[in-house]
Amino acid sequence: MAVKPLEDRVLVKPIEKSNKTESGLYLPESSKERPVQGTVVAVGPGKLLENGKRGEMSIKKGDTIVYGKYSGSEVEIKGVEHLILRENEVLGILEK
After folding, report:
1. Which domains does the chain have, with CATH numbers?
2. Fewer CB within a 10 Å sphere, N or C end of the chain?
3. Do 72 and 12 contact (CB within 8 A), yes or no?
4. Over pLDDT 90: what percentage of the chain?
């Protein structure tokens, strides 16, 4: 099953933080925060503008992005958690 985002939406696979601190301590599951970084899996065609043309997306497949902690909608695809976000919910693109 493949998911193709519509309009200005992006499909993101969250990047889970390690449950181990820099000093080597393991954190319990209950202390983990929601991820705020992810890898873009798929991108929609862009928002339909009033003139009938599509707006160009500034995010592309493969980008690593930063988003708000409670942004987007969670979906499960083939047993893996993903998020669907609007382009304006993305806070930034991490450069490699």
Report:
1. 9-17+26-94 (2.30.33.40)
2. N
3. yes
4. 52
